[in-house]
Amino acid sequence: MNVMNDSPRRKELTRQAAQLFVQEGFDRTTVRMLAQEMGIKSGSLFHHFRDKQEILAAVIEEGTQNALVIAKAALEECDNSAEARLQAMARAHLETLLTDRNAHVVALYEWRRLDPEARDHLSHLRDAYEALWEEVIDAALAEGLIHGDRFLVARFVMGALNWTVRWYDPAGPRSPDDLAHELVAMITHRV
Amino acid sequence: MNVMNDSPRRKELTRQAAQLFVQEGFDRTTVRMLAQEMGIKSGSLFHHFRDKQEILAAVIEEGTQNALVIAKAALEECDNSAEARLQAMARAHLETLLTDRNAHVVALYEWRRLDPEARDHLSHLRDAYEALWEEVIDAALAEGLIHGDRFLVARFVMGALNWTVRWYDPAGPRSPDDLAHELVAMITHRV
DNA sequence: GATTTACACTAGCGCTTGCTTGGTTGACCC
DNA sequence: GGGTCAACCAAGCAAGCGCTAGTGTAAATC
Question: Which ranges does the entry annotate as DNA-binding region (chains A, B) (predicted)?
């Protein structure tokens, strides 16, 4: 058994698993279905992952890690104004929804299927991502760009953004940049 | 078999099923677990519901129907200003999250486990609810209370509100009314 | 040339699943 | 006091589940 590495092979299998988890849901996806999608037999699957749970954890870890990297990069590239940073975060968030949609949908819907150890590990990753948001929102509050309760504003914004996976159509007329712009315009009170 | 009625007994069983579906998720909740929670044997369950799917549909229908009734009542009770109506809708939404929390969480997370016929039927109910929101948002746009794209504003607001089931603690210091007030303040641009 | 490693295979164990069947119970009704 | 009916039960079926054991093999490493 070859568990817990991050070979390119395992990454590819993880990506395929994510797709099936979205289509069927974690519980309804059997190891036999996963194996068939991957072009191997069900027994061979356990060479790459300790058990079915670990596949779920791998999918979510991959997506969250990418989101974190992209958000950090976006913040480094933009100017220092609170508005530019808000917009950069929103756009980055929506862009990962495009490139890593499957993983994010899984993270959203199947989070509770993780066993406690995996959940603990992954929630640290997620906290790191949310901390970026809170930092940006704090700056916007301090600048008077937005008003209200720090905690509530952060949750409302993350809610609006996360909800986009339910309706956003990447093939439609609106770009992630359009959406980010519209969201920021909605919550900012310009002077 | 006694399927498709709406006896008080069935309503009570539906309520108990909702609780289990939230705790365990639909797929992991077995008919034996449901029966035990209800104080009957697993076979008896199929006297009240045609199959497991129908229990899920009943849970979601119940919650959505209640939300619709409450929202309509709230709109009738408040004055005609766009701001008052926005706030009434938001408060009503958050209040159903308190009283019917289980059903709404199930609707959110297990919607995709519905078979196509049930999904079709229930999406009409949900559309009726969302239509109320769009009406109120249109009025607010027309009054200049909020700005932006009609479609996007509606989705962002619903996202922020629906997301509250992930973090809102009814036992905490904030009332649904506080939240509704804060949300409306966030998105309105007063003159 | 021998050994190890990575990856795949077949076969199947022990258990759980949603649901069916055939029958019993007790309250109510004319 | 026979008939009706919702509500329930015990038992079990066929199918499917996650996972293990043991084996084969080509490439990499010594």
Answer: 30-49
Distance B46 CA to D5 C1' (A): 16
Contacts of A27 in chain B (CB under 8 A): 25, 27-28
Predicted local distance difference test score (pLDDT) of residue B53: 96
Ranges of each domain in chain A: 56-187
Question: Residues with Cβ < 8 Å from A185, sequence gap 6 or more?
Answer: B147, B148
**How many Å apart are CA B50 and CA B56, to the nearest integer?**
11
Nearest to A190 by CA among B94, B36, B147, B169: B147
For B57-111, how does the pLDDT look when each residue is reduced to its tens digit (9 = 90+)? Answer: 999 999 999 999 999 999 999 999 999 999 999 999 999 988 899 999 999 999 9
Closest nucleotide C1' to the C-alpha of A54: D18
Q: Cβ of B161 and A157 within 8 Å?
A: no
- pLDDT tens per residue across span B166-176: 999 989 999 99
Whether residues B185 and A157 touch (CB distance < 8 A) is answered with no
DSSP state of A185: H
Domain A56-187, CATH: 1.10.357.10
**Token pair for residue B23?**
């705790």
Q: Quick check: A5 pLDDT over 80?
A: no
CB-based contact A185 B153, cutoff 8 Å: no
A48-to-A9, A25, A35, A45 alpha-carbon distances in Å: 9, 21, 11, 6
Predicted confidence at residue A98, as pLDDT, reads 82
Q: How far is the C-alpha of A187 from the C-alpha of B120, rounded, in Å?
A: 34
Average pLDDT for A142-162: 94
Q: In this complex, is the C-beta atom of B109 within 8 Å of any C-beta atom belonging to chain A?
A: yes
Instruction: Catalogue the long-range contacts made by B74-78 (C-beta closer than 8 Å, 24 or more residues apart).
Output: B75/B132, B75/B136
